[in-house]
Amino acid sequence: MSSRLQAGPAIGADVPLRLGGLARGVAVETTVEEAGFPAEPWGRPHLAGLAAAQVLAAAVLAGAWFGLSDELVFTRQIPLLDLAVVATAAGGMANVAWIVQGRSAVRRRTAAFQRRVAVVLPATAAAPAASESAPAVAMGGGIVSAARMTRYHRPDCPLLDGKDVRPVSGTEQRDRRACGVCQPLNATAPAGEG
Amino acid sequence: MRLARNQWDRTSAWLLIAVGAIALIAGWVGVSATAFPGEQMPYVVSGGLVGIFLLGLGATLWLSADLRDEWRELERLEQVLGAIAGSPGPSGER
Q1: Chain A neighbors of B49, CB-CB under 8 A
Q2: Among residues 14-33 of chain B, which lie with CB inside 8 Å of chain A?
Q3: Are B14 and B58 within 8 A, CB to CB?
Q4: Element (H, E) at B27
Q5: A83 near A65, Cβ under 8 Å?
Q6: What is the pLDDT at residue B47?
Q7: B44 lies in a domain?
Q8: Which residue of B has its CA nearest to A93?
Q9: Is residue B91 a part of any domain in this protein?
Q10: Which value does ipTM take for this structure?
Q11: Residue A172 at interface with chain B, using a CB cutoff of 8 Å
């Protein structure tokens, strides 16, 4: 984990990323502000914060329990009970903050990936289309999917990497939706723009 | 055993959820055994609140595992895209 963290620039660094080797020699330069993602959605400060909150909550719960066990008068137990409830709530809030942080990081990375797809795929997918008179992918033909997939794709869609797919018939196509990444019904403008 | 090691977060989540459920049941049994609030309160904390605490922690671990899976899948897709574009993804060379 640490080696990966050291390998790339920090999150938020404004690093221009040159995408070389694109079809037809198109050199596209884009700025990926999320350059250098860590190995996990959370950083060490988040992990330390969660661990500290949970350990503290557990310690307060244990202390409250010991205190309550020594005291048999209900009215004197109430402050300790309140403390235990607050500790449980604090632990729960730390959990929620952890999940929210993780979801936020995944959302940022997904957005960065979609922007990159929008830059890379038009250049690669448009190459055959430019040399043919007919669109490369037409409705009901030239699209593929697999038995358990809910979407159909272009054969060269990056989401199909390593998957066993087959051509889709018209009936099967009606039961599925078009992939949002390769946009098989749009021969010239794939890749989630907007 | 290998599954438990590879899926340590989900295994821990199930373990915490199971222990939390047992704590809740034990707390309920303890509270039911006495009619005095002063004797019930320790069970409310050690059974009820600790049970809720462990269930929350287990659920958090489970959701974290799902988020890690999404994270790794995105990393894989970036590498595929990087191969298409002929350059490494935003994750850098790995």
Answers
A1: 61, 84-85, 87-88
A2: none
A3: yes
A4: helix B8-32
A5: no
A6: 94
A7: yes
A8: B56
A9: no
A10: 0.85
A11: no
